Amino acid sequence: MPKLERSPEPHLYQAYGIYLLENKHKLIRQMKKRYQPSVHGHRPWDSSFLVMDYLQHRPMTQRSRVIEVGSGWGPLSVFCASRFGAKVTALDIDPEVFPYLKVLAELNNVKVEPLVKSFKKLSSEELGEFDVVVGSDICFWDELVKPLAKLVTRALDAGVKRVIFADPGRPTFYEMCDLCNKKHKVSLSEWYAVEPERFEGEVVEIRAG
Ligand SMILES: C[S@@+](CC[C@H](N)C(=O)[O-])C[C@H]1O[C@@H](n2cnc3c(N)ncnc32)[C@H](O)[C@@H]1O
Q: How far is the CA of 5 from the centre of ligand 1 (A)?
């Protein structure tokens, strides 16, 4: 069994080796008065822990260049930087998520580069700068299905080696996987995370086919 690590202060918790803050934490309560994400980026979502668990089993190369798309508060970005020493860019369409990401990065003593942009506008040239694309809980509307599948194609064509997304299992996510399956090597797995608590969902890894 792992060593028991007691939380050093109230409303702070750990998952997969990183520290996170609950909504009740004093700092988060203060920030919520000033910054209000409006596209569901108002907390860390459980699917991010699915990718963290997946990467424990299928790790990325140390110091990989990673872009997280639809990062929200960026728990996954922070994990990649902390666990793999990755050089991480966190992209989100909503600038209001980045103050939270900055706090999480500082809390975990890592650097993550913020990028305010829609993943629909991420060019092949920009994607070619990365080894790995990750994302969690980002395929939640019908209108996101095709743009995400196109993003995967642009990324793999530009030389990205691995694209890894997780989702609770929405129909839109499976539609996106089906579209990718027509062009690339798609490996879809049911997965579960065990930290901060048990959560089940889906992880897809897509590589050039
Ligand atoms: C459900 S949240 C997930 C946040 C984070 N990935 C997590 O697991 O905690 C979805 C995020 O995707 C972002 N998003 C939605 N559409 C986007 C787009 N077209 N380009 C970039 N980010 C987008 C939202 O602003 C939000 O932060």
A: 31
* Domain positions in the chain: 12-207
What CATH number belongs to 12-207? Answer: 3.40.50.150
- In whole angstroms, give the CA distance from residue 21 to residue 14: 9
How many residues comprise the chain? Answer: 209
Question: Which tokens hold the place of 174?
Answer: 């499976």
Q: How far apart are CA 80 and CA 112, in angstroms?
A: 10
At 106-165, the pLDDT tens digits run 999 999 999 999 999 999 999 999 999 999 999 999 999 999 999 999 999 999 999 999
Q: How does pLDDT run across 12-71, given as a tens digit for each residue? A: 999 999 999 999 999 999 999 999 999 988 889 999 999 999 999 999 999 999 999 999
What global pTM score does this model have? 0.96
Q: Are 72 and 135 in contact, with CB atoms under 8 Å apart? A: no
Contacts 24+ apart (CB under 8 A), 92-97: 92/41, 92/116, 92/117, 93/39, 93/117, 93/118, 93/119, 94/37, 94/38, 94/39, 94/41, 96/35, 96/36, 96/37, 96/38, 96/41, 97/35, 97/37, 97/41, 97/71, 97/72, 97/73
d(CA 29, CA 168): 27
Ligand 1 contact, 167 CB (< 6 A): no
Mutation pick for ligand 1 pocket among 52, 112, 121, 138 (CB with most ligand atoms within 8 Å) = 138
